[in-house]
Amino acid sequence: MSFYIQLSNPRINTISVKNEVGISKFIEDLFPMETEDLMICWNGVRFSLSYKYDIPIIFDDVIQMINNINSSQKGMLNVFWPSNTFRSDWKISWNNENIQCNTIWESVSGNVESVLNRVSSLECTKDYFIGEWIAVLRMIKKKIIKSGVNPNLILEMKELDELLEARRDDIGYLYTIETWSVL
Hints:
- By secondary structure, the chain is α+β, with helices and mostly antiparallel strands.
- The protein contains 6 helices and 9 strands.
- It has a 4-stranded antiparallel beta sheet with strand order 5-6-7-8.
- A hairpin with a 2-residue loop joins strand 5 (about 75-85) and strand 6.
- Helix 1 packs across helix 2, helix 2 crosses helix 4 and helix 4 crosses helix 5 (about 155-165).
- The longest helix has 22 residues, at about 125-145.
- The radius of gyration is 16 Å and the shape is globular.
- The two termini are about 30 Å apart.
């Protein structure tokens, strides 16, 4: 089956930051309500995530999920996505090469939960799965840099930088190096 994330090219707000701020709060402030959404294709079913609302809510969980999968050759992990427009439980298991994700979808933008629950299981390579999520994080970092805000004022920025540096070749299925130069 298929899984990919379409990042789009959301515009950003002009922000002034004088004191340290958590990265999730900064992401929420960075993106306007009316901008392009991120699109996920899960086994042929497409749905959107808001850069302003969904991404800040799931950001820490995405980092933790990637770190857990990266830290061991095989394992199991349960992820509870808490956003009211991306409310899902994922049971993820992996080995050296592959990942399997079994899901229960409760609330998804576009009201496609029943369709998603009919195609709830996903299998792909571990590197591919992580690469799709790394592309999301890479987009967030590019937009943070583009904002002109001092990244030293954004808490958790160092952790994000380290993760992206460790996975520097991951750019997402839909993208090329040239694409990243224009985003």
